[in-house]
Amino acid sequence: MSQPTGAAGSEVFDPAALAHKRTRNLAEHVIGLLLFLCAAASTLITVGIVLVLLRETISFFSSVSLIDFLTDPQWTPLFQEKHFGILPLAAGSFMVAAGAAVVAVPTGLLTALFLSEYASERLRAFLKPTLEILAGIPTVVYGYFALTFVTPVLRALFPSTEVYNAAAASIVVGIMIIPTISSLSEDALRAVPSSLREGAYGLGATKLEVSTRVVLPAALSGVIAAFILGISRAIGETMAVTIAAGQMPNLTLNPLESIETMTAYIVQASLGDTPHGSIGYQTLFAVGMTLFLITLAMNIVSQLILSRFREAYQ
Q1: What is the pTM assigned to this prediction?
Q2: What percent of the chain is predicted at pLDDT more than 70?
């Protein structure tokens, strides 16, 4: 016997189905609320960090001239004769980042090209996880590797090399960011449609020509993003450069000399000997704000580059 219906052609009222639908809608709303709270928490944490940096930085610049901060070639905020020029720290950070880029960018890009275009699936499945193990090694280990292995090699080649030097720090930081650059670049290269490769092969191009003249230009936006991300990490690296490069704020272009980066100074001044609220304590936040602004500027540049070179495939 058929079930009664309220009107001709209407479906049978099912309380269980209606309850299930309400429960599913409630679960969807709860999940959406949780996701919103996570996004809001991330935003609030970022805003809180910026406000803390900004408050102490304003207090610092109420005592120190911004012109002196940007132009003074000496940085001795913890000495009796105080100088607050950020140039030695900024130059040290950029020297290490530039040296790391010289090591990591060509190595990472060539590794990505090999994994994407030349390696078999079995070889790629072995090499890529092995390469990414480098990203899991603690940075302190890299620092002592630079101090006990890289620096002696450099001193054997260049006797004028100091025990703590920028070259050793640049080399180990470059090794550190190779997995970042190679992995992200390889993902960008593999995302290029196979139709582009097949079309190039159909025109008689060799594998090298396809890799360098078709695939690489097509994935340029992702590759550049990988470069910028790796260099950003190099600028923000702390323990490896603190151990390898030393803690001497020296304004120099000689990579064989000891230097100090912005992150290394933050480590030095955070050891507990700096009185809370003093001008030396406030330099921590001024340097941190400078590092934050540099990283922000790099992110903005990366977005501009991505928007300029982004390719859309249908």
Answers
A1: 0.80
A2: 92
